[in-house]
Amino acid sequence: MVGRFVWYNFSDITDHKIFPSRPLPKSAQPFRFTEAQRNDRIGNVSLTILDSLVEANNSVAFLIIRNDSLLFEKYYQGYEETTTVASFSAAKSYTSALVGAALADGFIKSVDESIVNYLPELKSSKGFDKITIKHLLQMTSGIKANESYYNPFGQAAHLYYGRNLRAYIKRLKVDYEPGTKFAYRSINTQLLGLIVERATGKPLTTYLNERIWTKLQPEYDASWSIDKKKDGLEKAFCCLNAKARDFAKFGRLYLNKGNWNGEQILPAQWIEESTTPEKAQGGASYYKYQWWMTKNGYEANGLHGQYIFVCPEKNLIVVRLGKRGGDVSWGAVFDRLAEKL
């Protein structure tokens, strides 16, 4: 694992090429956003200034969609609409959606269930019986972790480069009482993914494909990276590999309260619950169920600046993908766009 960390060096949006994965196929009848007439401005937003800002900050894709119309779409640094980009932690929001699907399907009874109901290998470790699914969703589990992306011996490196995540999970320990404070830790999402797999009896990619991905009528093939080829486990905390337009469709699903062209794919109540901040039991005002809250909306957020931003009030979706985050606060940029449109 350390050797792979050193060999590949720091993570990159092309890392989908170095990991095994399970496929997410494109649709035979893809949904396409309406191509709007391109102008120099959108509302009070100068597209020339916006384009310069986006390009100067290491972006590879930037999309603005309002009322199902593609108002702005541009690619940079040799990337195109057909180029695959690794989502990094934006995948956490997809894992959250699958928890909602499993609840709706009756595979999971409640977010208040103890995680050891699905992860019995953790029963013998002190404190895990007190951790609920909601604690994982809220990043308030208290599981001991090191989220550093620069430490080859840290937990993030184990999760990203490790080839036996099932075995690694057995080594976890509890750091503090669950439900007492927020601490962003990818291990929480990894456990959520394993819970969904155990509850449904299906690999995470299979369940995503059946319950959500296919229904969103993707234009392109995609994939979810796994830790190893044989009996691999999805890296639920990251590594969903897709194209910008198809990432935008996930934003559209949440924008429309879980409804896709008349079919209720996810319960509207789950969407509402997932995007309404809750400070009780250690929760943070800026985070809920694997989504980050902003002033005017909420976003799926991944390392190096992978974003799916949703603003319900303006019926707006923004997708930004990049090699690095750049020198701007993208959440603030999205909020400003929402105010000006």
UniProtKB/TrEMBL annotation:
<dbReference type="GO" id="GO:0016787">
    <property type="term" value="F:hydrolase activity"/>
</dbReference>
<protein>
    <submittedName>
        <fullName>Serine hydrolase</fullName>
    </submittedName>
</protein>
<keyword id="KW-0378">Hydrolase</keyword>
<dbReference type="InterPro" id="IPR050789">
    <property type="entry name" value="Diverse_Enzym_Activities"/>
</dbReference>
<dbReference type="Pfam" id="PF00144">
    <property type="entry name" value="Beta-lactamase"/>
</dbReference>
<feature type="domain" description="Beta-lactamase-related">
    <location>
        <begin position="58"/>
        <end position="326"/>
    </location>
</feature>
<dbReference type="InterPro" id="IPR012338">
    <property type="entry name" value="Beta-lactam/transpept-like"/>
</dbReference>
<dbReference type="InterPro" id="IPR001466">
    <property type="entry name" value="Beta-lactam-related"/>
</dbReference>
